[in-house]
């Protein structure tokens, strides 16, 4: 089995230089870094992550706990987190809690025992302020802010405001909002608050429909949307709390011979890939997922380096207008 000395000899550098490349520590020229990496590949050398974490009192890994990996929003978030982590010399441990508190707790304990550099928590079944993570920084991403924890949210209220104002300016007078999960408190609820405020300010009739946790976990809103559109007649504008819901609104409307945008105008939220793949394409609120991922990694890295950071950050959003609200 190859050793760090073997790698150094093949690369023509010192073992100290190899160590600095492995640990991403200090200045190393790109040419030297490439030589060391090529030597490790040629020899099949694999650094001992456990030994490194024991030496440094932390590993170069970041734990990421999400409630779903198949949901378009979390899939995009995970991809961006992995990319930003790699840029900063980290790897991620991906944990899918499936909205189960017990699994989330187990993953948090696993991250602690593996001495991760930080934890990014996107799943909210366990109150993180009740969990002792020691000196491991925890970033709450699109979760309610908590004292002592780093937090990142998008401006959900502004997003709901822009979506609702756009529907009203497009001529809608009877609005429906597919909101969040019944009896769940989350930052996304501010989209609903904005929807109510703007409708009231403009004397526009509105309806709100929430869904149960099973519907959210299964990500199948079709029957729920169909039942709602049959129950509430003459809706001419819909604000969906995610692009995934908005895409299924299009499916239901096609079955019911309701034309979008001629009969109903539709706005989603997130701006994930599915919003550009439907017919019509979906007008949506762009959530800065790439920027949120970049900031989450930077916060953990800054905490490790004892750099002072803002504990709570709300990032701006923007409305992306596509065909679901444009009459041709």
Automatic annotation (TrEMBL):
Sorted UniProt keywords: DNA-binding, Repressor, Transcription, Transcription regulation
SUPFAM superfamilies with a match to the protein in the record: lambda repressor-like DNA-binding domains (SSF47413), Periplasmic binding protein-like I (SSF53822)
Short name of one Pfam family: LacI
InterPro entries: HTH_LacI (IPR000843), LacI/GalR-like_sensor (IPR046335), Lambda_DNA-bd_dom_sf (IPR010982), Peripla_BP_I (IPR028082)
A GO MF label: DNA binding
Domain HTH lacI-type: 2-56
Name of protein: LacI family DNA-binding transcriptional regulator
Species whose genome carries this gene: Clostridium saudiense
Lineage, opening ranks: Bacteria, Bacillati, Bacillota, Clostridia, Eubacteriales
